[in-house]
Amino acid sequence: MANILQTCTLTLLVSLATQGAFAAKDDSFVDDASAKGVAEVEAGKLAEEKGSAADVKSFADMMVKDHTAANAKLKSIADAKNLKVSDSAELVDKAKTMILELRSAKSFDQAYANNQVKAHEATIALFEKEASEGRDAEIKAFAKETLPTLKAHLEHAKTLSRTHGGDAN
């Protein structure tokens, strides 16, 4: 009887340790994905304010709406699993870098379009990895479900970049 109890205890401990390792990977995705989502919303708000072209402002509005919705869904999933999501305070350094890039471009519209191509390429890579390698079924499903929208955003951003003389294709 003692052997069975020890075996069950060992099995439980190994199971919990393994789950912790998988949770750490999922936690990293949630943190990275939420940070990118918050950055998209903030960049979109800035573009709605500073952009001059109607197509840039329209794209920025779409980014704010789509990424706000995705962020809310991810936060709901993360909260249920006690995983941490990024908030605006954690993005100050990233925002500073983006602002410097925007100042060095010919126009805000061009810089924003270029930034959106690069940002969506990085986000798609993150989501594709989670969709194929993720351990948590719900987070993996979220990544798979969100990928088509991200890919559509990328194609739209590439069109904006070409339209506004950007170098990101």
Task: Explain what you see.
It is a single chain. The model is unreliable at 1-24 (pLDDT under 50). With 169 residues, this protein is mostly helical. The chain has a single domain, classed as Ferritin, core subunit, four-helix bundle (Ferritin, Up-down Bundle). Helix 1 runs antiparallel to helix 2 (54-80). The longest helix is centred in the first third of the chain and has 49 residues, at 2-50. 84% of the residues lie in helices and 0% in strands.
Which consecutive residue ranges, at least 5 long each, have pLDDT under 50?
1-24
Any idea what the radius of gyration is?
20 Å
Determine and state the CATH class. Mainly Alpha
- In CATH, the architecture is Up-down Bundle
Using the alpha-carbon principal axes, give the shape.
elongated
**What would CATH call the homologous superfamily?**
Ferritin, core subunit, four-helix bundle
Approximately how much helix is present in the residues? Answer: over 70%
Question: What pattern of helices and strands is seen along the backbone?
Answer: HHHHH
SS field, number of helical segments: 5
The domain tally reads 1
Taking the alpha carbons of the first and last residues, their distance comes to: 66 Å
- Could you tell me the CATH topology label: Ferritin
In quaternary terms, these chains amount to single chain
Provide a quick synopsis of the model:
This protein has 169 residues and is mainly α. It has one domain: Up-down Bundle (Ferritin).
